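As a warm-up, study this chain.
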Amino acid sequence: MPIGICPMCREEKKLCMSHLLSKKIYPLCRNDEFEPVAVNSQVMRPTVNQTKAYLLCEICEDNLSKNGERITVPLLSRWDGPFPLFDRLVKQKPILATEAMSIYAGADIPEIDVPKLIHFAMGIFWKASVHSFGRGSDRPRIDLGEDSEALRLFLRGEAPLPDHIALAIAVESGPIRFPAMIDPFPGDNPDFRNFFFYVPGMQMQIYIGDKVRESPSAKYCINVNPRAPILLVPLGKDMRGFMAKHSADAYKTEKLLKTTAEIEARGLSVKLGD
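Now compare it with the structure written out below.
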């Protein structure tokens, strides 16, 4: 392991191989027959490569694991299998239900550890804000500005999460779950700085701004509303549409075209979007 400055504790130590999204999520996005497909604006390709880099020391890596990943990852949707987070939600009565979504009070569900969900999300946003994770540039994946330091202090237990950062968690409501990962990416909220990421069956989104707690959507944010709301919505269509939009001009490798042909020959569709 190389020696360097750990960006979380800021001490010179041996650095571990750190994944942007937990390495335990990758098996949830594949089956025994086909490799996962990596999608970005330049290329689409089947690959077993994972998004990782030497970043954190062992103690800081364990902090993110025990305070978020170990609890949250087992709740995610499995390929053609169970979805524990969904199951735990729908056992309860929603606090609000409309045609578009149902909202559950995470604070009222003992089987859901709300602080661990928040720590998991903020850990991923923070890592994306301090490292490029090999995207051909030294620039971090997302720009959180001074709020990157605020998240670092929160993750270390040295400060509360700032009031101007709100986190919304949405869970897939439909029977078809999108077995994919989307790294932290800027959102399109017109009122606040906004970033999101997606892991199988769950989207986590942060809104950053001085008046974020006064906005109508704040009541749906897990760290703002005391009832810790979790939204149950049809995520798959939007996530597939997002990937289709941002990969419209991407080069498709020969391996991908061959795999696609094999799948479609079975009468299945691998089309992104509608």
